[in-house]
Design brief:
Blueprint (H helix, E strand, L loop, with lengths): L16 H8 L5 E12 L8 H7 L9 E11 L6 H6 L9 E2 H32 L14 H22 L3 H4 L1 H20 L4 H29 L5 H26 L5 H7 L1 H14 L4 H9 L5 H15 L7 H17 L15 H19 L2 H6 L1 H7 L8 H26 L1 H24 L5 H17 L1 H12 L5 H53 L8 H9 L1
Helix pairs in contact: 4-5, 4-8, 4-9, 4-10, 4-11, 5-8, 5-22, 7-8, 7-10, 7-11, 8-9, 8-21, 8-22, 9-10, 9-18, 9-21, 12-13, 12-14, 13-14, 15-21, 15-22, 17-20, 18-19, 18-20, 19-20, 19-22, 20-21, 21-22
């Protein structure tokens, strides 16, 4: 395996002092890195100086055992930059020295944006019951029409759609960190306004603001996590964000079940999101910007290259729990900047609004957009709609209580998502997608058969329902967003993810509104056949178009996609 200096990623393997020094005496040779065995070194502690604290603040207790890989460096022929060098990237799967503690903190606060998204889904199911109750709503405007209730439920969805459009032209200007801070502020305002709303119109304004926060968080969080975490655990951490979404749904269900009998309980259900949003905002304020974003701005000529490089070095040092301005971070930043400038040397400093529809960018959008589209149109909302009746038919007493059914399904979703998080960096993205989507198709055809001629076998329905939920949570649930976060080239990553998020929420809205007419026109049995056929098409899409990105750095994925 070999790689040239123009194609090394921001997160390269840290060589030992002896090996590094030996390379300086061999300028005409390129190193080939062969990974042998892994071992642990004693904990390292980072002491942040006053300048670093002034720039970004500090976190304590970032010391933890660091995973290192011993290496052998052998000589290989010199390669010039160009096609030969580009061809080497796929062979150089680089590993990085990191500690789990320093990797978790930059993940946790962006992931709270996902938790707040899930919480809104769970809390709304109980809040709509409370809001419409003459005895429990605590308002004089509890008698909502179907349109008004629909606006309350889908108000955050409309806000998310608008938020996805809003960040498309300004994502690279804002940066990932500032976008998530703004998202936290919108979450905070939306939650408080909704909780204290004196009228329906004010409540809808709060729901819209909260939705804006969802749109920006679902765009910024996967960006920040993917760009700041070590490549060998990127799949685990981005998928873990999906686990926090499911955890948020569960939290919303639990809060709803506790507050459902309280007068004005819906206010508490929505208001509890405010302190979580405040925690998210404070955490993002203390975290540094994405080093890759800083280098992108430098390559685009948006300021002093030296200043952006210095900020990127400080940011990377903090993200890895290393002393500020350390030589490893300096070397990694320099190599990534050279690679970035080389990649975009013949292009404009900043792409046009429509660049995402050209060349490798279009290929990335087809993959990412296709995954999030199939995530929605394979019937996930519709299948869960039938969860209560299916369990009730099978004789489960919990089916008589909608909130308990939701909690049971939520717990199962949580467990299956946890399995995906644990295995995604071992098994890879494609195997989980192929197995999961195959299970989706099978479960949908079984559900159709249950409604058509297997009505006397309720356990078939229960098994099909659980198979569907489990397969969704190991495939489309976490893997779609993981692929969205890593498949776009850095130059168009902000715009590309914005379009993918927009596709997701738009298709969600279409499926939600089309469900009732389709159910009446086709019947449950034929509707599930339709969803099963779509699942088979999505399986074909995955097999033919979706690449494997396990263990590759973002720069390696970009090079692989451009071939």
């Amino acid at each position: 395996m070999a790689f040239s200096s123009s194609t090394r990623s921001l997160f390269n393997l840290k060589l030992t002092k002896t090996h590094s020094s030996s390379l300086h005496h061999q300028p005409k040779k390129k190193p080939v890195i062969l990974f042998s065995h892994a071992h642990f070194t004693p904990p390292l502690r980072s002491t942040y100086n006053d300048c670093f604290r002034a720039n970004y603040g500090t976190f304590t207790n970032l010391s933890a055992p660091r995973l290192r890989f011993s290496v052998k460096v052998v000589e290989s022929p010199d390669y010039s930059s160009g096609d030969e060098a580009q061809s080497l990237i796929s062979e150089a799967t680089q590993q990085e020295d990191f500690s789990w503690v320093s990797a978790i903190i930059p993940f946790l606060f962006p992931a709270l944006g996902g938790l707040l998204f899930g919480y809104d889904i769970g809390a709304t199911s109980g809040a709509t019951i409370s809001l419409q109750s003459p005895e429990l709503s605590g308002t004089a405007w509890f008698n909502l029409s179907a349109v008004q209730l629909g606006l309350v439920v889908s108000g955050s969805l409309y806000g998310a759609l608008f938020g996805s459009l809003l960040v498309y032209p300004i994502a690279d200007f804002l940066g990932r960190r500032r976008e998530l801070i703004i998202s936290a502020v919108l979450y905070l305002l939306g939650g408080l306004i909704t909780a204290y709303a004196p009228s329906l119109s004010v409540l809808l304004v709060g729901r819209l603001l909260y939705g804006l926060g969802i749109g920006m968080a679902m765009h910024g969080a996967p960006l920040y996590i993917a760009e700041t975490c070590p490549s060998q655990i990127r799949g685990t951490l981005v998928s873990l964000k999906e686990l926090l979404i499911v955890l948020g749904i569960l939290l919303g269900y639990f809060v709803g079940s506790f507050e459902i009998n309280a007068i004005g309980g819906w206010r508490y259900m929505y208001g509890i999101s405010a302190p979580i949003a405040l925690l998210m905002g404070i955490g993002m304020w203390l975290l540094p910007p994405s080093p890759r974003w800083l280098l992108l701005r430098a390559a685009q000529g948006k300021g002093s290259v030296k200043e952006y490089k210095e900020k990127a070095i400080l940011a990377l040092s903090k993200l890895r729990g290393r002393p500020p301005g350390d030589r490893v971070s300096e070397k990694q930043v320099e190599e990534t900047y050279v690679s970035l400038k080389s990649a975009y040397a013949d292009q404009e400093s900043e792409g046009s609004l429509f660049e995402v529809f050209q060349g490798p960018n279009l290929k990335a959008f087809i993959i990412a957009g296709g995954l999030v589209l199939f995530q929605q149109i394979t019937g996930q909302p519709s299948v869960l709609y039938y969860a209560g009746p299916i369990l009730q038919t099978a004789g489960f007493s919990a089916a008589s209580d909608a909130t308990r059914v939701s909690v049971v399904i939520g717990l199962f979703k949580f467990v299956m998502t946890g399995i995906a998080v644990l295995k995604v960096d071992d098994l890879g993205r494609r195997p989980l997608l192929i197995v999961g989507v195959s299970g989706l198709a099978l479960s949908l055809f079984l559900l159709s058969a249950y409604f058509k001629f297997l009505g006397g076998f309720p356990l078939v329905a229960v098994a099909s329902l659980l198979l569907y939920v489990g397969c969704y949570q190991i495939s489309f649930g976490p893997i779609s967003w993981l692929m969205v976060s890593e498949i776009f080239p850095l130059r168009t990553r902000g715009k590309g993810i914005s379009l993918a998020v927009l596709t997701n929420f738009a298709s969600n809205a279409i499926v939600t509104f089309a469900f009732s007419p389709l159910k009446e026109a086709l019947g449950a049995e034929n509707l599930f056949i339709l969803f099963g056929v779509i699942a088979l098409l999505s399986l074909l899409f995955v097999v033919l178009l979706v690449p494997e990105t396990k263990g590759l750095s973002l720069e390696e994925i970009e090079s692989k996609l451009s071939k």
